[in-house]
Amino acid sequence: MKFLGKLILTLLAAVLIVLLAFYILLQTRWGAGWITSWVNGHSDYHITFDEMDHSFSSPSHLVLKNVTFGRNGQPATLVAQKVDIGLSSRQLTEPSHVDTILLQKGTLNFSPSTAPLPFRADNLRLSEMAFNSPNTEWDLSAQRVNGGLSPWLPEAGKILGTQANIQLSAGSMTLNGVPFSNVFIQGAIDKDQVTLSNIGADVARGALTGTARRNADGSWVVESLRISDVRLQSDKSLSHFFKPLTTIPSLALGRLEITDARLEGPGWAATDLDVSVRNLTIAKGDWQSEDGRLSMNASEFISGSLHFFDPIVNADFSPQGIALRQFTTRWEGGMARASGNWLRDGRALVLDEVALAGLEYTLPADWKKQWQQKLPDWLNSITVKRLAASRNLIIDIDPLFPFQLTALDGYGNNLQLVRNSQWGIWGGNATLNAAAGTFNRIDVRRPSITLNANASTINVTELSAFAGQGMLEATAAISQLPQRQVTLSLNGRAVPVNVLRNWGWALVPLQGDGNLQLTASGSLAAGAPLRPSVNGQLQVTGANGQQIQQVMQGGVVPGA
User: Fold this and answer.
1) How many whole angstroms separate alpha carbon 430 and alpha carbon 415?
2) 424 near 418, Cβ under 8 Å?
3) What does pLDDT average to over the chain?
4) 116 preceded by cis ω (within 30°)?
5) Residue 341 phi, psi dihedral angles, 5° rounding
6) What is the pLDDT of residue 37?
């Protein structure tokens, strides 16, 4: 019996020595190599690490050093200097579900090819890690990430799992090309819904805070978002800058506040911008709101050729449309003011008032082309109920027919300026007059026009100006049909006999002042030259009573 007892003790000692030796060997490079070779040869995953460390002072923890892990044939999912795995009694029933996993000083690469992963944890903790998510809807790169999530239950295509609480911070982050720093995120994942209960970050030398939720269908609900003191320079045009809003199913803004922002991109800029938005949903290129509101002001706003100083906009949103309570701005050396409504039914903009005062405005070189272009579908018509103009300077630098109107005043009522998304004068009446004018190098004084328009015709009931020592007076009618047939009747008394020469008529073989009588017709059809369509007759009586009569056919006066 003594011999048997000694034998058993000897065998136990030998087993313990072998286990101890095996335990020690596993914590060497040889042991690490053996483990990684076995895993790589018996699974779809590839793992390497330099050594495994275990201490009896923390018996439930295994530490792997310089770890690389990923799926076979794919880039590594994890690269870390240290992986601390906390074990528990759960390993008796679920060997792959551990208590904690701590990742230190490495990189996690998220992509659809990285999941599913073969292990889970009650807590995943990160220390000085980096994130990358190529080939996903969120182009994300983050550095110096700390924090964690619990539990961590990764699934195929969802490396963060479908049920977890999240708390993370990052020293720097780039999301879809936008850089952030000092980022803090707190929230939860519930199946396909992500709730961000607390977001904070420094962006473009400013700060961002807020709360938001991403629903299962990819739509976003921003309960509150505050952005302050940002200084952002973008390489995108204004339309491309806002394009991400059109790529998601919908964006519901509960409360958005932007204060003291400076934004700049190619052809656009905003300085000292303040924006407040309430209860507005943007979806599929449209918007919805039950009781929304927009307030905006800036010291300067530029979009293409538009350059506004001190613009102020206040508007209310409802299912019926937009109530523009206030729009005021300093523009082109003067002031512009408007108020009214955009009606969803009919896509009609009805402005109760438009006031223009003190402008010094040079028309764009292609203003005639822009006038003929069709407006977007959301703007089917524009009606101005009351128009008021005061002391404006309007200049056209077209070399073929430049003109200038100085101290232009005027008023109008019920002017329909857009119909079927096309500019024009489709209805209403207006009277405009100026202190002086120049039309293709012919100076006139006190030019004035009065017109009224309906669906069929624009009637110019009064068109007058002082020229030389006398006066020009005319009436005209312009058809609203596509050919735009025009008839004109003009009389001049004691005016220069060749006053019409720079306006397209032939030279009259007389000198000095005289009386004129002109009747003419033509076509202002879009895209077609005017001159070949003009037919007319001019009778001139000189100061000495001599009379000249000229006839124009197809824009030409024979023999002139």
Assistant:
1) 8
2) yes
3) 87
4) yes
5) -145, 140
6) 58
Query: SS3 string of 444-508?
Result: EEEEEEEEEECCCEEEEEEEEEEECCEEEEEEEEEECCCCCEEEEEEEEEEEECCCCHHHCCCCC
For 532, phi and psi rounded to 5 degrees?
-60, -15
Residues 49-74 have a mean pLDDT of 73
Give CA angle at 207 (108, 199), nearest 5°.
50
Contact present, 124 and 149 (Cβ < 8 Å): yes
DSSP one-letter code for 284: T
What's the pLDDT at 84? Answer: 87
Task: Say if residue 353's pLDDT is above 60.
Answer: yes
CB neighbourhood size of 65 (10 A): 15
Q: What is the DSSP string of 404-420?
A: EEEEEEEEEEEEEEEET
Identify which of 315, 316, 310 has the alpha carbon closest to the alpha carbon of residue 336.
310
Residues contacting 490, CB < 8 A, separation 6+: 463, 472, 473, 474, 516, 517, 518, 519, 520
Give which of 165, 277, 291, 163 is closest to 223, Cα–Cα: 277
Whether omega before 151 lies within 30 degrees of 0, making that bond cis, reads: yes
Q: Which residues of 487-515 are buried (b: 16+ CB within 10 A; e: fewer)?
A: ebebebebbbbbbbeeebbbebebeebbb
The tokens of 534 are what? Answer: 């003009």
- Which pLDDT tens digit goes with each residue over 77-109? 888 898 888 877 776 677 778 888 899 999 888
Question: 455: closest CA among 424, 483, 485?
Answer: 424
Which positions ≥6 away from 62 have C-beta within 8 Å? 52, 53, 54, 84, 85, 87
**Can you name the residues that pair with 61 across neighbouring β-strands?**
86
At 173-194, the pLDDT tens digits run 988 778 899 999 999 999 889 9
Question: Does residue 21 register a pLDDT over 70?
Answer: no
Confidence band (pLDDT; 50, 70, 90) for 460? very high
Q: For residue 429, list its beta bridge partners.
A: 413, 452
State the pTM of this model: 0.83
- DSSP secondary structure code for residue 181 in this structure: E
Q: How far is CA 315 from CA 275, 280, 309, 339, 383, in A?
A: 12, 12, 19, 9, 18
* CA 349 – CA 323 distance, rounded (Å): 10
CB burial of 516-555 (b: ≥16 within 10 Å; e: otherwise) equals: bebebebbeeeeeeeeebbebebebbbeeeeeeebebeee
